[in-house]
Design brief:
By secondary structure, this protein is an all-alpha fold. The protein has helices spanning 6-20, 25-39, 42-55, 60-72, 76-89, 95-106, 110-123, 129-139, 143-153, 158-163, 167-180, 188-197, 201-214, 235-244.
């Protein structure tokens, strides 16, 4: 099920707030987030996020969104600096270390990524850190620990099940996720990831197209997601990256 109208409503709310007071840093940052994660209008997002930081240099969320924007464009060193700044401004939030951990993972900095996930979980044990930590552990070969983290997160993703050779379990999990989309949001990129690792390229790309229609924010990281390595050489993969407007490589 698509996410619905949450992001457009958030954009409308931010624009309304800015019409009332154009100096609201939070409103400018919120608008930049919608432009980044929903509109994929990177130029507009960068402009509004920079304006938000001009208005309030202590706006931690603006640094997070700007870090995600530069990460999507492959500018890893700049991303690191922005997330470090966000953590210094809001040390009690699990958001900055969790999102920073994601970019460290995508850049292949696995040990550093795990440190950030542990930091996020120390702040908020109920965050998404367990699932992301599971991915990091799996990539470095610590599979038993990875499965323990996935269990804490509510279940092993189908792409991981497929990588483990548990094809029937992966198919069952995919069927569950597809069925659940009729009543709640389930990210189509997870389904695409499952089919990619089961070797079904056509279904993988069909679900990536659904993720595109849903405006899945994970598509901003598609160029770097390791569980899509098997379909990366397919011309459809680069074509999708071009449609999203993200960089195909990480600049370290």
């Amino acid at each position: 099920m698509p996410r619905g109208s949450e992001e457009p409503r958030a954009g409308d709310a931010a624009r309304t707030a800015l019409r009332i007071d154009s100096t609201l840093a939070d409103g400018r940052a919120a608008l930049g987030a919608v432009e980044l994660f929903y509109d994929w209008d990177f130029a507009a997002a960068r402009r509004d996020l920079e304006r938000a930081l001009d208005l309030n240099p202590s706006a931690s969320t603006a640094y997070i969104y700007d870090g995600a924007l530069l990460g999507a464009q492959g500018q890893f060193d700049s991303t690191r600096a922005l997330f470090t700044k966000a953590q210094s401004l809001d040390p009690l939030s699990s958001g900055p270390p969790l999102i920073f951990g994601n970019w460290l993972l995508l850049a292949g900095r696995y040990e550093q990524a795990m440190q950030q996930y542990h930091k996020a979980l120390d702040i908020d044990p109920y965050s998404d850190g367990h699932e992301q930590l599971g991915y990091a552990l799996f990539v470095v070969g610590r599979r038993r620990e990875a499965l323990e983290e996935f269990a804490r997160a509510g279940g092993t993703p189908p792409g991981i099940l497929a990588r483990l050779g548990r094809s029937q379990d992966a198919q069952r999990r995919l069927a569950e996720l597809i069925r659940e989309r009729s009543s709640r949001y389930r990210d189509a990129i997870v389904i695409a990831e499952g089919y990619a690792n089961l070797g079904n390229r056509d279904l993988a790309f069909a679900w990536l197209d659904t993720a595109y229609s849903d405006r899945s924010s994970w598509l901003l990281t598609l160029a770097f997601l390791p569980l899509f390595d098997s379909i990366r050489p397919d011309p459809r993969f680069q074509a999708l990256l071009n449609r999203i407007g993200v960089s195909p490589r990480m600049v370290n």
